[in-house]
């Protein structure tokens, strides 16, 4: 028995796209087991890193638009992510210590981690307000994952290249009047066991778009579309304990106007642990009140009180 850290919406236990369900879960379990004991790796692929090399080139200190969008996003490269990557490369040169990563999640390791930890904590403490702190936190998380995953993970399925499952995914079309926004926490970005990425793998990045929590370019892109659609065409799939939660039939069914071919309905799916999703949901509601003077409408796939709010423990 362990404390629950499962996601509210998307997990390998949710038969979202594949049948049979058990086969899909077994695939991820097998993949995770096969990656245990992975040795630290640098921001360069081990096969291309010359013996005794200490630094990377200036060209590798940036993220190109092609590389960035290859991970499943349609936005420009976030400016703060680029700045964090440049700062990491400068630190690598200043201390003459190569950047290395432990495990599979883009976590810094070794002597470089000690120096970088002191530097980023000082930077975080110097920021004036909580919004700046959030943006820096998100940018740093994403920058480290981008550098640590280069040449290691498949950009489409976020699994090690030798375990790529892209050939097993079949794309299909989403209804043209429906758009999904996957609002993802930075700590879930490029995680191998993340299942939210399947949305744009199956439906495409224009129909199912990634929006990273705390990344200004992503959040502004999403809210521009939501504001254009209007509050009555936007729903958040999240069990809100403090407000009446509509069912899909009652909340969405009445909003479908067959005569209106241009009315696109937008659905926001939160992808993060339960503790992180609470902060993400509050941020969405705060923005909605600024834009519309009211909170987002929430829907639930099941009517009544969500059982997930009553769970404190779950079986592995």
Topology:
Elements: E1 2-3, H1 21-34, E2 41-42, H2 65-70, H3 79-94, E3 100-102, E4 107-109, H4 110-126, H5 130-149, E5 178-184, H6 198-203, E6 208-212, H7 216-229, E7 234-237, E8 246-247, H8 248-251, E9 265-271, H9 274-292, E10 297-300, E11 313-314
Parallel strand pairs: 5-6, 5-9, 7-9, 7-10, 8-10
Antiparallel strand pairs: 1-11, 2-3, 3-4
Question: What attributes does this structure have?
Answer:
alpha/beta; DTW; 13% strand; three-stranded antiparallel beta sheet; tRNA-uridine aminocarboxypropyltransferase; 316 residues; globular; transferase; disordered N terminus; 2 domains; DTWD2/TAPT
Please tell me about this protein's structure.
GO terms for molecular function: tRNA-uridine aminocarboxypropyltransferase activity. Helices cover 37% and strands 13% of the residues. The protein has 316 residues and is α/β, with parallel strands linked by helices. The chain folds into two domains: 2-18 and 165-304, no CATH class; 60-149, no CATH class. The strands form three sheets. Strands 6-5-9-7-10-8 form a six-stranded parallel β-sheet. A three-stranded antiparallel β-sheet has the order 2-3-4. A two-stranded antiparallel ribbon has the order 1-11. The longest helix is centred in the middle third of the chain and has 20 residues, at 130-149. The termini are close together. Residues 1-57 and 303-316 have low confidence and may be disordered.
């Amino acid at each position: 028995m362990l404390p629950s850290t499962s996601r509210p919406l998307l997990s390998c236990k949710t038969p979202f796209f594949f049948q049979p369900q058990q086969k899909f879960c077994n695939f991820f379990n097998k993949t995770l087991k096969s990656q245990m004991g992975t040795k630290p790796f640098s921001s360069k692929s081990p096969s291309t890193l010359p013996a005794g090399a200490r630094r990377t080139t200036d060209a590798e200190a940036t993220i190109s638009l092609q590389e960035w969008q290859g991970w499943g996003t349609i936005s420009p490269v976030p400016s703060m992510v680029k700045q964090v990557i440049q700062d990491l490369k400068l630190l690598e040169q200043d201390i003459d210590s190569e950047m290395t990563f432990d495990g599979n999640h883009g976590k810094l390791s070794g002597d470089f981690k000690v120096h970088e930890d002191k530097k980023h904590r000082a930077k975080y403490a110097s920021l004036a307000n909580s919004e700046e702190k959030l943006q820096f936190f998100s940018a740093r998380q994403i920058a480290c994952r981008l550098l640590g995953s280069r040449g290691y993970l498949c950009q489409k399925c976020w699994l090690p290249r030798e375990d790529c499952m892209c050939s097993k995914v079949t794309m299909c079309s989403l209804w043209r009047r429906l758009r999904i926004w996957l609002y993802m926490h930075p700590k879930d970005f490029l995680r191998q066991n993340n299942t939210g990425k399947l949305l744009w793998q199956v439906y495409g990045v224009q129909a199912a778009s990634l929006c990273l929590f705390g990344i200004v370019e992503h959040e502004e892109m999403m809210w521009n579309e939501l504001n254009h659609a209007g509050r009555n065409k936007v729903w958040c799939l999240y069990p809100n304990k403090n407000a009446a939660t509509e069912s899909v039939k009652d909340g969405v069914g009445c909003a479908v106007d067959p005569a209106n071919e241009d009315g696109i309905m937008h659905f926001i799916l939160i992808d993060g642990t339960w503790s992180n999703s609470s902060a993400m949901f509050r941020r969405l509601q705060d923005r909605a009140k600024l834009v519309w003077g009211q909170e987002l409408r929430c829907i639930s796939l099941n009517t009544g009180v969500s059982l997930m709010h009553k769970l404190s423990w779950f079986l592995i």
